[in-house]
Structures are given as C-alpha cells and as structure tokens.
Amino acid sequence: MTATTEELMVFAASQEIRDGNTVFVGTGLPMLAAYLARATHAPDVSLLFESGIVDPNPTHLALGVGDFRLMHGATSVRGLHYVLGLLQKGSIDVGFLGAAEVDRHGNINSTIIGGTYRHPGKRLPGSGGANDIASSAKSTVIMCLHRPERLVDRVRYVTSPGFLGGNDEREQSGLRIGGPRMIITDLAVLRFHPVTRDAYISSIHPGVDPATVIARTGFPIEVPSDVARTPAPDDTTIQLLRGMDPGGVYLRGR
Amino acid sequence: MTSKVATLSEAIGLIKDGDSVALGGHTLRRHPMAAAAEIVRQRKRDLHLIGWNSGIDFDLLVGAGCARIAETSYVGISGFGLARNFRRAAEAGSIEIREHSEISALDMFRAGASGMAFIASSVLMGTDVPATNPRIATVISPFDGKPYTAVQAAHPDVAIIHAHSADRHGNVQLDALHWPDNDADVFVGWAGKTTIVTVEQLVSDEAIREHPDFTILPRDAVTCVVEAPYGAYPCCCDDRYTYDLDFVGDYYAASADPAGFARYLDEWVFGLADHDAFLQKVGVDRLLAITTKGAL
Q1: pTM for the whole structure
Q2: Do B140 and B175 fall within a single domain?
C-alpha cells in the first residue's frame, strides 16, 4: 500500500503533535492530521477548533468550521473568546496554517497576489484567523503546494507573520512567542535555521527528484545529496487515515 | 411597551446611503441574508460594511454595488473558493478593503459594545495588516512597556444580526443548542447605534420569560425585530437548518462574471417582491431538505 501525497503530508503533520499538546485545528488536511495523531501516538491531545469546540468526536467529517456536525461528541463548546483567548495567552502548542503564498522566512500571504494593494492582480480572502494563529501559537505548521510562485523569497503582503525578515526580527516586532516550525509541501518538508530563520530542506518525499524541489522553489535552495526522505505511513496508518475520510472529502488524490 | 416589530422593508429603510452597516454571522453560518437581499432591493449605496468573518453576505452586497468599504477579516465562499464579486471589485479598485484578523475584528465590536475607545491585543504586529486599516495602530503598554496592537471601537450606524426568536418588545433569543461563536453576534448587536434583528420566529412574551438565560440581546439593545423565517438561507442556522450547498454553488457559478451575476440579481432579488416571495421561489421541498432540527 502506497500513501498518496496528501496522506504523506497529513502523516508528516500528525508527527508534529506530541501527546498532551493543545492543538488549534482548522478543517481540511490539518483536521485529519490531528485526528490521526489522537488515534495513534497522542491519545491525550486536546483539539481546539476556532468555534470554541473542544475534543469533538463527529460522526461525519466537517466540511468547514461552520459545520454544525463538528460539535458532535465534544466535551465543551466554550465559545470563540475562550479559544482566541487561549491563543493570545500562549496556551496553544501547535497551530496549523494553509498558505496560498509563503516565503523563506515563513511569512504567509493570503491577501493579494501581484499588482498593488489598491489594484491587486488577484485578491484573496484575507487573514481570517490565520494571523491570530501565526502571531500567537507556540509553533505553527504550514502546509502548501510546492510551486515557484507559491514558495517565494519574500511575500508581496505579509498577512500572517513567520520570522518576518529573519534573524530576531519577529521578536523585535513585539510578537511575543512562536513562529513557524516547518512547511510541509507536496514535495518536501522545510524547516528553519535557528539563527537566520531561513528555510532549508529538511526532507524530500519518497520518489521526489531533488531537481524538481529546486526547480519548484521560488528562491535559491540546496538539496544535500544525502537529504533525508520524509517518513511514509505504514499500511495500518494509511487504512486508519482513509477510514477517517471515506468519501474523499479532503484526501482527494486516490 | 411599544412594539418593536417591523417589516423587513421598514427595518432596512432605516439604513441611509453612506452608513456603516455591520453584519453578523461567520463564513457560511447565520449571516442575515434576507436583510442583505433587502438592502440590495432597496439599492442602498456607499455602505461601509463591517463583519468579522464574511462570505456570501459581503459578496452579494459588493456585487450589487451597495458597498464602498469592506472591513472584515475574511471574505470567501466556504468550500467553493474566492468570493468572485468581492474579488472583482477589489481588483478593479472599486471598493476599499480594511483588513483584520479575527481577533482584531472581534475586538472592534467588543470595544464598541463595551464603550471602550480601543482594545489591545498581541496579534498583527510585524505584518502589513495595520497599514491597510486605519482602525489599527500600535500602543505601548503603561504596564510592561511593550508594544501592543490597538483596535479602535466600531460603532456601526446599523448592526444587523439573524437570531432564532424574539418577542414583540425586541428581546432576542438563541436556542439552547447553537453554534458557540455566537458571542460575536452579541457584540455586533450591542455595538450598533441602530440594531436590526431578523429572527426565525416571533414568539410570545411568555416563551421568552420561560428561558431568560437564552436572551442574547435584551430589548434595550434592539431597535427593531423582523420575522424572517429561513432568514439566513442559504447559510446554515445552528440546529434549525443547515446550509444549501446547491444554492451556494449556483450562486458561485452565477457570480463568475458580471453579466451572470446581474441575471442572478434579477432572478433572485429584484424579481421578487420580498423575502416571502424568495422563500416561495426556493420552494418547500428545498427548505424541508435542509431543515435539521434534532439532527446533531
């Protein structure tokens, strides 16, 4: 049994969750990663959803954060301010973020692509809760597609902060904690240098050509000849994961 | 006590061109869509829309040319993609967008609701968001000397939310079983200089008094109440009904270009006298199919 790229990404994300962590979850692949972590190595993980839902056990996969079915089997529905308050208090260990465009310091743009702010080439939806998570979680895991126009040297507009211009700029800005831990793409896993906060290739996914990674990264990046391969989930884990999304709502690529 | 019951037409008639208008709801959930359609029908112009996480409500009003400013943390058509009318207007530069995160958007309503000039938070620093919203600035805390983000209070000329029930005096309630981020709608309602609440049903005084703890907005906070069953459609409304994704999908397809959206407006807004006519056109089968009471 071979994991699809999406399954590999979800598995990699799930490995960042430690047992006992408090995790801020959106819908989509991060939700599956959190469910997978809870079902395997992190049974005591605390899952918080933006709407104030704690530890749900839904019988159907939620289609979005506004999906009422997400409330099923939860231990608490404490409300929005509770969860956003936990964020600002620094109580969230891991937050997950998707990104239309992310740069080598982990800054995310979900506002405008191209053009000027007043006349953008493409207008995106905006921050939503992403800035709140990126500003406030102790660490974040970013998931995005590995394309040169998406993984760029410097984003056009910083919607959600990574390490800003690198080095200690994030700390100097007044942001108190956090910063991105990694970027999981469809080709590789990138992490950040502890001093410069520049992204580097930590591993590439099984079967991926290093030349492809270099070609699809929008800034100069090295892939060492002895680069690690991203661990793939075993058959049991793949089956578990597929059972969580039997309709292929989020795991589309199979 | 005087009745605060109004028709939708009367209530929306309180909005003047150029007003700031706050809309409750979140993504595809419980936006006051019947009220939004009536704003379009009455051809309001130059509105400053304010929301905390917006969707088809903002997209409809922007697409119909009602808005000059859109101030919110997000505008998207959940699950389908970008809000196409909003996107076109933004790219053409025909609306001004004032950016927020969810925390800052909530804080502007919280500040407005509680009579504070601003509320401080620890988000948005270091990003491009403060420079693209005049309501956001940096303050230095007198307590720890550190910078914080200050968000100026919102005092919308008109705030509109959709809720489950109200009595004729304007006491507004949500069912016991409701989506837990309704705290936002409460602050939206409290922040308004004029507050319009559409509800699924008007109920007796006794029904309200039976569960005073369900009241989210007491009558002092409410200017008028309007009975608008399925007033959030095609958005979901807690445990009353879920969203109609087929309708949202048709909307999304229609909004692909201005001509298609003009046809949508003619068919679903201008061509219908009021919300009742809209519900007639949607039809009983479709409404029953999304009605989910007790389905959790």
Answers
A1: 0.95
A2: no
